[in-house]
Design goal:
The structure holds 2 protein chains of 2 kinds. Chain A folds into 2 domains: 371 residues, no CATH class; 107 residues, STAS domain (Transcription Regulator spoIIAA), CATH 3.30.750. Helix content of chain A is 63%, strand content 8%. Chain A contains 23 helices and 6 strands. Chain B folds into 2 domains: 128 residues, HUPs (Rossmann fold, 3-Layer(aba) Sandwich), CATH 3.40.50; 122 residues, Rossmann fold (3-Layer(aba) Sandwich), CATH 3.40.50. In chain B, strands 3-2-1-4-5-10-9-6-7-8 form a 10-stranded mixed beta sheet, with helices on both faces. The longest helix of chain B is centred in the N-terminal third of the chain and has 37 residues. Chain B is of the alpha/beta class. Classes of the chains: A alpha/beta, B alpha/beta.
Chain lengths: 498, 291
């Protein structure tokens, strides 16, 4: 038990790298948490408390060392209407419920369901997320004076060019430099632009345990449950995706089911501490790895630094111009975007591209990542079924001596290929005997059985004697016990005929 | 060459290029000869759980994820190749050492992952595991032996020999007997296993401030040793256990100490320390942990 939850090498094998990365991540977490609170329509402190709670809790209970979790854009977008219609307290309750659902998912090992989400949908999810984060910045850039554009543009220039400054470029986080520089410019030249303080309350104390002030009844549950289901799904999806990205980057393994329940615990903690629901953050996790963070220590320190900075520097935070924040968030959205996927569009099959683009379009249209993933998975499954339905052909020959027509069906018969199966048969032909050899066919579902029944009845009605060969073997695949099909010899039967 | 996958049981010498690698190899050769088993020289390439490049610029550009992956994997590949080559050279050198001493039933194996992971995977092939203690790159405090070593001792269910000095022939072996289940197992194993040779002298020592219980324990120990042809000597001492044991080892110029495995859980050990750990840290002769 203890051994599982406290591995020394997951904490103390990289102390120097983790301490530094923790600072860089905390500095980057602050503007993000504020920005995502604004997206969700709550005070910045809700996002900051959430990022602190989630980062600290997940450091202990998460399944992926070196991954950063906190308040995220994907989750913030899902709670907009809940906050608008019912207020903050319902959001906190929904956050706790989200956590409970995620813990249940972890307990039932639903992390494995992730394998049903194809790569194209994952890429679409990430790209849609990037676009949404960018779009969420647009309200800050409309109906404003030219100063805001100038400041934002200057901020982006600093973010991307500062790292090229020799020596200090790779020692100081460029988003921090940007924020400090722009804040100084605004104060020195006394420019009248909106700042973080205008957006709502910042934390002035440590977070405290609070039970959400909501009526505990069925009505409340019915209000928050749909939100919690979407939040739980999107949270787990983004967390597991991010875990895979960190796995790849660091060439190490993660425990996906522990991550699911860990996210649950973290969200429960966040809800009771006055924070919004969150999940793993792609951009932050990449920044963490890039800065040298590898273990749980960097996640924990990021959370702790965040809280210390926020509580003691809240006066300073409030004077940060929104333009600086927007610049940082544009960087986050650009960094989240999977650029490689655009370059690969030309080489990938059209069906894959359709799935990816459809996921992006649905998400951007509805602002709901869960819906996008659902559409993406559905489309991908349909394309897959369509591909498999091509794996069926028929051989037919006629024996004049006995006046027998034989149809030999080879391949996969299921809902999508059932019509094609029926079309193999020539119902117009007048023959005495008809033999249907199914010994190399596979009937995957009830549609296939219906199709066969239909064919047999029709042929009999035309006056032929119909004989079936190998029907039992063909339909043995209908049985849902897939355990036996995992054995090599059973797979060989399906692939190569009985 | 023989493949590690086809071996049923073997003596595993785990070498990492630290200063006792040759001694580990020699002890393993001795044991392999006694047991007439294949000797496997195992070198593991551990994935570093630490970062080396520091870039604190904290920004992410378009396509940064792919670039970072590229960069990190190149770096790892480079380091791994070095480690693999070093390990290969070491293994070949040690195989040469073994064959030159006339033992040909030896194979070399190089695997990715930590030593613990690999031993756990190979567990059913292990007859004896031998590795050097004070291995390279382990920062140790007074009461710590590195979590890797402790986990191996706890979880790997075969005799383990910790080598902490140059090789010298095993003419005698001492077992610390306190009547607890761990030391009973150790004593039983010591008196029945062919591993240490029949002629090797066995010392059974009990350190106890209470003379009566000491007498009882020694009587119990005598019962446990069924093979009467073994050359045994029983020693009773009183005093601070660790100190007394160390002086006892010195006085009788013992070549190897046999002990049982950890008797307490990990949590307790983490808070209160462990006699086993202290022993492993302070004893200057190779230790065999029997279970």
């Amino acid at each position: 038990m203890l051994q599982k939850y406290f591995k020394k090498e997951e904490w103390f094998s990289n102390i120097k790298g983790d301490s530094l990365a923790g600072i860089v991540v905390a500095l980057a977490l602050i503007p993000e948490a504020i920005a995502f609170s604004i997206i969700a329509g709550v005070d910045p402190k809700v996002g900051l408390y959430a990022s602190f709670c989630i980062a600290v809790v997940i450091a202990f209970v998460g399944g992926r060392a070196g991954m950063i979790s906190g308040a995220t854009g994907a989750m913030a977008l899902l709670m907009v209407t809940l906050v608008k219609e019912n207020g903050l307290e319902y959001l906190l309750a929904a956050t706790v419920l989200t956590g409970i659902l995620q813990m249940i998912a972890g307990y039932f090992k639903l992390g494995q369901l992730m394998s049903f989400v194809p790569r194209a949908v994952v890429v679409g999810f990430v790209n849609a997320l990037a676009i949404l984060i960018f779009m969420a910045q647009l309200p800050e850039l409309t109906n404003v004076t030219w100063h805001v554009y100038a400041l934002t543009a200057a901020g982006l220039v600093v973010i991307y060019l500062f790292p090229y400054v020799p020596k200090i470029g790779t020692l100081l986080p460029s988003p921090l430099i940007t924020i400090v520089a722009i804040t100084l410019v605004v104060i020195l030249f006394d420019i009248d632009v909106r700042n973080v303080g205008d957006m709502g309350a910042l934390p002035d104390t440590l977070p405290i345990f609070l039970i959400p002030q909501i009526p505990f009844n069925l009505e409340t549950l019915m209000i928050i449950l749909p939100y919690s289901i979407s939040l739980a799904m999107v949270g787990l999806l983004e967390s597991l995706m991010t875990a895979t990205i960190v796995d790849d980057l660091t060439d190490t393994k993660s425990d996906k089911n522990r991550e699911c329940s860990g996210q649950g615990v973290a969200n429960i903690a966040s809800g009771f501490m006055g924070g919004m629901a969150g999940c793993a953050m792609i951009g932050q996790s990449v920044i963490n790895v890039k800065s040298g963070g590898r273990t749980r220590l960097s996640t924990l320190l990021a959370g702790v630094y965040l809280l210390v900075m926020v509580v003691f520097l809240s006066d300073l935070l409030s004077i940060i111009p929104m333009a600086a924040l927007v610049a940082v968030m544009i960087m986050v959205s650009i960094g989240t975007f999977d650029w490689g996927s655009i370059k690969k569009l030309k080489t990938l099959p059209i069906s894959t591209n359709v799935v990816m683009v459809a996921t992006v379009v649905v998400v951007v249209w509805t602002h709901n990542l869960a819906l996008g993933v659902f559409v993406g998975v559905l489309l991908a499954s349909l394309f897959f079924a369509n591909k498999i339905s091509h794996f069926m052909y028929n051989e037919t020959y006629y024996d004049e001596a006995t006046d027998t027509r034989t149809y030999k069906i080879v391949g996969q018969v299921f809902f999508n290929s059932a019509d094609k199966f029926v079309e193999f048969f020539d119902f117009k032909e007048v023959v005495e005997n008809i033999m249907i050899d199914l010994s190399r066919a596979h009937f995957w579902d009830i549609s296939a059985v219906y199709a066969l029944d239909k064919v047999v009845i029709k042929l009999r009605r035309e006056g032929a004697n119909v004989t079936l060969i190998g029907q039992n073997q063909a339909s043995s695949t209908i049985i849902d016990r897939f355990g036996i099909h995992d054995k090599p010899e059973e797979i060989e039967k399906v692939m190569g005929g009985h | 060459m023989q493949d590690i996958k086809n071996i049923e049981q073997a003596v595993f010498a785990c070498v990492d290029g630290s200063k006792y690698s040759e001694a580990v190899c020699d002890y393993a050769l001795h044991i392999a000869k006694e047991l007439n088993l294949t000797l496997v020289l195992l070198n593991t390439i551990e994935h570093p759980n630490a970062s080396s490049v520091t870039n604190l610029s904290g920004n992410i550009a378009l396509g940064e994820r792919d670039d970072l992956l590229q960069e990190l994997s190149l770096e790892d590949a480079h380091k791994n190749r070095d480690r693999i080559n070093n390990g290969k050279d070491l293994l070949k050198e040690l195989r040469e050492r073994v064959t030159s001493k006339g033992y040909t039933d030896v194979i070399i194996s190089q695997r990715h992952g930590t030593l613990y992971e690999n031993l756990k995977e190979l567990e059913n092939k292990l007859r004896v595991v031998i590795f050097g203690f004070s291995g390279m790159g382990h920062m140790q405090k007074e009461d710590e032996i590195g979590s890797c070593v402790e986990n191996i001792i706890r979880d790997i269910d075969t005799p383990i020999i910790l080598v902490n000095r140059e090789y010298s022939p095993i003419r005698n072996v001492m077992v610390a007997f306190n009547g607890k289940s761990g030391s009973i197992k150790a004593l039983e194993e010591l008196s029945s296993s062919p591993m240490l040779g029949h002629k090797t002298k066995r010392y059974v020592v009990n350190i106890n401030s209470n003379q009566n219980s000491s007498n009882e324990l020694i009587a119990h120990a005598k019962e446990l040793i069924k093979d009467e042809s073994l050359n045994c000597e029983f020693i009773q001492k009183s005093g601070e256990p660790l100190e007394t044991l160390l002086t006892c080892i010195d006085k009788n110029s013992i070549d190897m100490l046999a002990i049982g495995s950890y008797s307490h859980g990990k949590l307790r050990t983490a808070f209160f320390g462990s006699f086993t750990t202290k022993l492993i840290k302070n004893v200057k002769i190779p230790i065999i942990i029997l279970k």
